[in-house]
Amino acid sequence: MTGAAKRILLEVLGWVLLLAGVAALVLPGPGLLLMAGGLAVLSQQYTWAERLLDPVMLRALRAAAEGVETRPRVIMSTLGALGIGAFGVLWLVAPDAPGWWPIAERWWLPGGMWTGITLLLSCVIALALIVYSYRRFHGKPEAVAALDGRIDEADADAHEQRDRLRERGHGERRHQDGEDGP
Fold it and tell me: Is residue 178 very low, low, confident or very high in pLDDT (cuts 50, 70, 90)?
């Protein structure tokens, strides 16, 4: 594969993962994880993606830690993941539309087999993330505190970068307007 073809393939993959992650923020699926994956791929080409990668990854880890803070949250997270898996099985089995279905039968379980497969994949990923999060964060306040410290540091770094970019932008405008010396 040529360098240009590889670059285009990686860029397309990065954008697909990023957009799938944004969609998964409201649809079933690991949205922040997909966004972090997309940003990781795009960060090889774009500085803006590199700047966003750490904050998104840290927020994904924080959400994972919150999901296993208490036993009821662990249970609800697990039930939610299994519910997504159950819908995936329903899509794969593809039963006929029930009699109570109020609209056209073609709107019963749209998307077919691939919708079921992606729902099952989301279920497996969610369960794996619950196990990972439980092992890393449950009952470990020091791990959560360390993560919060990293988030605070990343936020401070982001504010500094933003201020530097803003200052550089203002300096360039003053120079263009002739207010600064050469």
Answer: low
pTM recorded for the entire structure: 0.67
Domain ranges, residue 79? 70-128
What span, in angstroms and rounded, lies between the C-alpha atoms of 41 and 15? Answer: 9
CA-based diameter of the chain, in Å?
Answer: 79
In the predicted model, is pLDDT for residue 108 greater than 60?
Answer: yes
Q: Is 88 contained in some domain?
A: yes
> 94 lies in a domain?
yes
Contacts of 59-64 with CB under 8 Å at 24 or more apart are 59/32, 59/151, 60/30, 60/32, 60/33, 60/35, 60/36, 61/147, 62/147, 62/148, 62/151, 63/32, 64/129, 64/132, 64/133, 64/136, 64/137
CA 142 to CA 111: how far, in whole Å?
44
Closest CA to 7 of 40, 41, 49: 41
In a domain, 124, yes or no: yes
How many whole angstroms separate alpha carbon 28 and alpha carbon 66? 18
In a domain, 82, yes or no: yes
Total residue count of the chain as it appears in this document: 182
Alpha helices, DSSP H, located in the chain: 3-24, 31-42, 47-67, 71-93, 112-137, 141-177
Checking if the pLDDT of 182 tops 60, the result is: no
Number of domains in the chain: 1
